[in-house]
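Checklist before submission:
- one chain only
- standard amino acids only
- sequence pasted in full

Submission:
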Amino acid sequence: MGRIGLQLRATLENITGLRAAGEDFRWYLKLKCGNCGEVSEKWQYLRLMDSAPLKGGRGSATMVQKCKLCSRENSIEILSQTIKPYNAEDSEKFKTIVEFECRGLEPVDFQPQDWNDYDEKTKESVGIYEVTHKFVKC
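Returned file contents:
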């Protein structure tokens, strides 16, 4: 499967940028088995701080999972060096914010959320709206 990038598009109102901060940031995804096509029913999250050994001592990955349907062991890795902020100048355009190394697991859905608040200091509303996403091969 190789590398798959998550592209985000959003409207930023009085926000200079957003980014995945820290190794404990959770990327909520639905994943598909590349062998049988089974898609996870529940949202699963990946974090940079997580690491699981690969079968046979071939290293590690962010997530290693055995498919419930076909029993194949699959893995996915967050490529930390590819994590990029989504800035005000990116507003309303698709931008790749992270890439995953996929070995049998393919992300098929991402759970973004709109957010809004009021900044008391500037007396302005702030928000992240109309968040959409897509996955692209890298």
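Reviewer check: The chain has a mean pLDDT of 95.
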